[in-house]
């Protein structure tokens, strides 16, 4: 009892924080609190709404684990109301998508192989994409200049390979070779590569130039031998075209015939399920979301909340309602919360350091605390924290956040004794990029002071 009281007094005293070193008073918000009691160790502008950048993904992850469960899986189905006669599907095939964020070409190819094993050899009708699972995917306004970048790809019911095709490089008889994965029937690959003499590859993009028009992907440059096996992505086509062309290429590669055309339509009420495939579990998706800060997947996770609990007919609004309802049930005031897409890819999203910290503390105390913590980057070891805060390797797990005017860190530090500290630190400033070292130092200072308070407690 005496130790607990002493620790509470130390923690309470520490909330009278000064401006962290290197910052102006209005540039940073910090909240730090132990998991094992209800005190607050440190706070600076903790109730001010701030743009959290990608640390907002932690709120989305917490809500998904609580509402959907760690083993939640997205389902993809192929349906038809047409008869199957002697290997011929005498009508349309409906691809019912529900937003599997990890659906890729190998998994789709396996689904199509299973479809063939179930007797479908030729599709006489059309391939029709059933996209009813999402009525509204939300927005990420303010990123038009990055429209060709992978991190801005929006979620979709029929997202495949994150809508990214890969150029994979090798050598054939000493000559540079390149393949498009998946093959897309609309495009001809024009290989103008020459053998390069560089000693090593590094980033293959420094050796090659890629130009794309409506029908051709042209690859030129000088490819060193060290780039054998290297790859870089190319962002082409809209989502529906990418999915349907990938289907056609994979289907024909397996020996299938058809479809005659492609389009978008809802599967008839009486259509039977020819094949159903489940995704990887939610925890695997959240690892991609948090360790590698995948925006598209994070937005897909948020939309799953609305998709599974439809109320208003607006998928995004229903998802946000699920998050707010969960916060209310936990007694966490959401006055500072503004959600645009749940990924932090937003100029509008806001949350206070205190609210995000209380969410992390609730998570650590709940049944899925270990699952959430395991998705966070390890300081100095992996993910987006691989080259940062290495002096705390083995004890610190934090999600990073980066936008033009934002740098953020949020996660957990664990003492050798097992006691845990939640830390949220957010910089909103035109100087954000140059303040990253100061942010790391501020987090390190909080940890060292808290560790000292543990040693002082009897």
Automatic annotation (TrEMBL):
The keyword Hydrolase applies. Coiled coil: none annotated. Pfam families: Peptidase_S13 (PF02113). Keywords: Carboxypeptidase, Hydrolase, Protease, Signal. Residues 1-17 form the signal peptide. GO terms for molecular function: serine-type D-Ala-D-Ala carboxypeptidase activity. It is an enzyme of class 3 (hydrolase). It comes from the Bacteria. The keyword Ubl conjugation does not apply. InterPro entries: Beta-lactam/transpept-like (IPR012338), Peptidase_S13 (IPR000667). Its EC number is 3.4.16.4. Belongs to the peptidase S13 family. This is D-alanyl-D-alanine carboxypeptidase/D-alanyl-D-alanine-endopeptidase. It comes from Vogesella aquatica.
